[in-house]
Amino acid sequence: MKRMFVVMLGLVCAFTLTMNAAEGEKHKATPEEKAARKELLEKYDTNKDGKLDKEEKSKMTKEDKEKMEKLGGGHKKKAE
């Protein structure tokens, strides 16, 4: 019985570590992506604080919003 418990606990730990490792992989931005993100920020950051607030984001064109999301600057909330 103890042996079965230890085996099951080991499998659960291995599965958890594998899932966390897969979620932790992040995309490194290329210089082109960084330049495009910086360009969009300069275009819409009216208060020059280095980030886009709700009001600034609302003034973005649909195309620029899509571009920002593709560049990783959209920061959509994860579905839980």
Summarize the structure.
By secondary structure, the chain is mainly α. Helices cover 64% and strands 0% of the residues.
Distinctive features:
single chain, 80 residues, 4 helices
Number of contiguous helices: 4
Order of helices and strands: HHHH
What is the SS-derived class? mainly alpha
Query: What number is the mean pLDDT?
Result: 82
Contiguous low-pLDDT stretches (5 residues minimum) are none
* Multimer state: single chain
Q: Can you give the helix content as a percent range?
A: 55-70%
End-to-end CA span: 35 Å
- The number of E-state strands comes to 0
The profile of the biggest β sheet is:
none
Q: How much of the residues is beta strand, in percent? A: under 5%
Query: What spatial form do the alpha-carbon principal axes imply?
Result: elongated
Determine Rg (CA atoms, Å).
21 Å
Topology:
Elements: H1 2-24, H2 31-44, H3 54-58, H4 62-70
Structural write-up:
- The chain is mostly helical and 80 residues long.
- It has a domain at 31-73.
- It is 64% helix and 0% strand.
- It has 4 helices and no strands.
- It has helices spanning 2-24, 31-44, 54-58, 62-70.
- The longest helix is centred in the N-terminal third of the chain and has 23 residues, at 2-24.
- The protein starts with a helix and ends in a 10-residue tail after the last helix.
- The mean pLDDT is 82.
